[in-house]
Predict the structure.
Amino acid sequence: MELRPLTEDYAVSPQIEPQDLAAIRQAGFTMIIDNRPDAEIPPELWAERMRAAAEAEGLTFVVNPVVGGAITMDNVTAQADAIASSKGPVLAYCASGNRSSIVWALSQAGRMPTDELIARAARWGYNLEPFRQTIESLANRG
């Protein structure tokens, strides 16, 4: 497990496993967002199994499956709503952390400058430059 903070209250990670949850809670996270569709992973990592394990650790667990190359506004809205409802730091995960970074940046459009959103993800090797125009469009809507 590798936690990659994008802000003080939001980090991303590649796929986590049930045995990582105690350490995630001990690191101060209160919510986990699963951005990985079940179809990509073995049954032992499916959302409902991860939810049960996370809730047993006292963590809130949100399922927001993001299909690579097919991010929807519903994904963006769900991510924003989950982050806003959290009572503490959030960890979002997918295969590499990239999709969790993208939906975060899109959900934060207008709350932070576009350059900063892109730069925060870039520190961890995530290239959000292809999403610049979408981030700016969303920022201008608000």
